[in-house]
Amino acid sequence: MGKPQKIFFPENVKFLRKRKKLSQESLAQQLDITRVKLNAIESGKTKNPALEDMVKFSEFFRISIDSLLKAELSRLLELQLRDLEAGNDVYMMGTKFRVLPITLDKEGRQNCEYVPVKAKMGYSAGYKDPEYIASLPKYNIPSLPGHGTYRTFQAAGDSMFPIPDKAEVTGEYIENWLEIKSDTPCVVVLNGSNEFVFKLITSNKKDKSFLLKSLNPAYEPYTVAADEVLEIWKFKKLHLDEIPDPLTDEPEWKRMFSELKQEIRSLKK
Q1: Per-residue pLDDT tens for 38-82?
Q2: What is the dihedral of CA 84, 86, 89, 95, to 10 degrees?
Q3: Which is nearest to 42 in space by CA: 66, 22, 15, 81?
Q4: Which of 209, 132, 116, 210 is nearest to 166 (CA)?
Q5: Is the pLDDT of residue 120 over 60?
Q6: Per-residue pLDDT tens for 197-252?
Q7: How many Å apart are CA 192 and CA 5, to the nearest integer?
Q8: Which of 99, 165, 181, 231 has the fewest CB atoms within 10 Å of its CB?
């Protein structure tokens, strides 16, 4: 099991009240609650606020209850806060907690950091820590467009066969998850599981979830909630140390390999 979800409701209420330059007395009057109750909520003394009170805060600040509970709003950029107030959900926008840390080379160009399999546990804990990202091996890939942010992950297992175990997959960081098309090959960094996976993903905005599929038909597709996803990196390049084993004559493997080649051609275009 992953770590329990931290609840940010008390500090979010206080942050949003101050952002609107309201006193506790003024906000309490507008929400038709007492100042004592509001003070208890903001200080965290009220461990389980009433649902009707959460609805009042949500409607007043124009931010979903889900975001009031789970997103640390004080760490978001002003543009991200405006997205929330406009009704865009941070858990499907991919902008939920921080600005992506990056590293630069001597010429000021973004590096492509390398995350090997052995770094799985460290990455899921340090993915938003600039010092940790700076400690990763880094290099540049001249053939990739200069406007993107890239990271290389070492795949593991045979769920994406014919892509072999230990192959290195370079992905481009996706900030807005709503732009992801169905069955897009991506590296998905998951919360609480100490892992990243390389899958074909399809977003489900209604259920705030993603369907993850393997190329290998021996593995069943599965669904993860959007708030369990830390990062998504869209496939850009595949790096191999050796030529993959030849496929068998089975029609299923031929079909899979053909689909993979078509997917790579479409990405190159």
Answers
A1: 999 999 998 888 889 999 998 899 888 878 888 888 877 676 677
A2: -50
A3: 15
A4: 116
A5: yes
A6: 899 999 887 778 899 999 888 899 999 988 788 889 999 999 987 776 665 555 55
A7: 10
A8: 181
Q: What is the Cα–Cα distance from 29 to 182, expressed in whole angstroms? A: 47
| DSSP annotation string for the chain | --PPPPP-HHHHHHHHHHHTT--HHHHHHHHTS-HHHHHHHHHT--SS--HHHHHHHHHHHT--HHHHHH--GGGS-HHHHHHHHTT--HHHHT-SS-PPP--B-TTSPBPEEEE-GGGHHHHHHHTT-HHHHHHS-EE--TTS-TTS-EEEEE--SSTTTTSPTT-EEEEEE-S-GGGPPTTEEEEEEETTTTEEEEEEEEEETTTTEEEEE-SSTTS--EEEEGGGEEEEEEEEEEE-SSPPPPP-S-HHHHHHHHHHHHHHHHHH-
Name the phi and psi angles at 229, rounded to 5: -100, 130
What is the pLDDT, as a whole number, of residue 232? 93
User: Taking the model in full, what pTM does it have?
Assistant: 0.61
- Taking a C-beta distance cutoff of 8 angstroms, is the pair 237, 170 a contact? yes
